[in-house]
Amino acid sequence: MKKNKQNASLYFFKPLLFALFAFVFALVHGNSAFAQQLDITKINEIPTYLGSLDEDSFVALTSLEEDVPLNDKSMSFQIRLPKAWRKSEEVSSGTMRGVSDRVLGEIVRYYSPSDFYTISRFSITALELPNAITARNWFLNYVMSNGYVLQGMKEISEREVEALYVLIDGDTSYSVRSKAVINGSRIFLISYFVPYQKWSETPQERGMQERVIQSFRFLHPEEGIIGQTEIYEFLDLVAFDYPSTWRLTAPNANSVEGMNATLVNTIDKSLLEGKIDIQIVSTESETTIAEEILALKREIKELGFKVEDVIEHDNEYSFHEDVYYNRVEVYRLEGIEGRIIAHEFWVAVLVEDRYFYIVTLMSPNRTDSFYTWAINMEAFATVIESIGPIVRSSENMEEEDAPDKSKRAVVPQAQMGNAGNQ
Hints:
Jelly Rolls, 2 domains, 7-stranded antiparallel β-sheet
């Protein structure tokens, strides 16, 4: 992230207490049909039930637990759980199904005593993250992929969310309160399952569930960067970061007038899942931004797409400190005659004293391929937030090399939108 923060205009596509019958519909008709009912721009705020169980009572009814799953210090945690609950030794021994270098699976489980409502449980699952993604988008993909009923969510940070949802496990419906937390290169799902009938009929149980989840903390939290990044430099003048899992194609640059570069996200180096194009053009060039945008539209049509609506959505990026103009838009692309699935086309225009940058992303849309879309969006953000002049110390910069800020180009605010809709 850079030093200054600027608002960018971002355009996107122009409830969530589902009844349990919707859950049954999802099971009958498949997860994909259900997932389309979740509008990710209209997520309810997670309800709170802390008033149903005060802090002193919570402490009296629980004991402090500490654990180091799989003897991995980076997973060590602390939490308060009800005193009568017992730990599953089978899970904690690391013998559970699904453990591997990439997918760790369930690493901890605790059970409540059995009662009329069957058993409540607490669990932690872990997963390696090979690509950069926010906790919010990872969790939304988790919910949509499994057809769960999301009741509310709160984004605590890019690395942590808390959510309440309903799922069916066997013949029992559960109300689940979870935290999804990115710790180092892994994401952890910390969950408290309560049989839905017990949860709905017992206010104190709702308060207990919430306080337990909020008591969780890692003993050795790791920040780290999710996914490795590489740096590309253009003639020692401009640089940008990009995910190392994306493949860069850039010609040898011999002219200070500008260059083009392409990044692709592929499966097994064959199936294209996302494509980012970077155009770097000198501000001294006769080419205008509007002309470049119109050229992009012609290329899109040649690829078999037609440009549909520009959909508004406010967002915020942190740009290079030398970027004095920025604009980001997202277009909906439809395949001509239905031959190609719908895509999204992201366009960022950034201007600094020597160059303007046009960075575009072609991605499957969020409705059809949410996880792929989320990975592509993070890669796009990595590029546009990092691209800018390579900063040299003032003593190494010749006076004639310094850009003349009095000659900055005037970029009309509406230019992107107008160019995009012609």
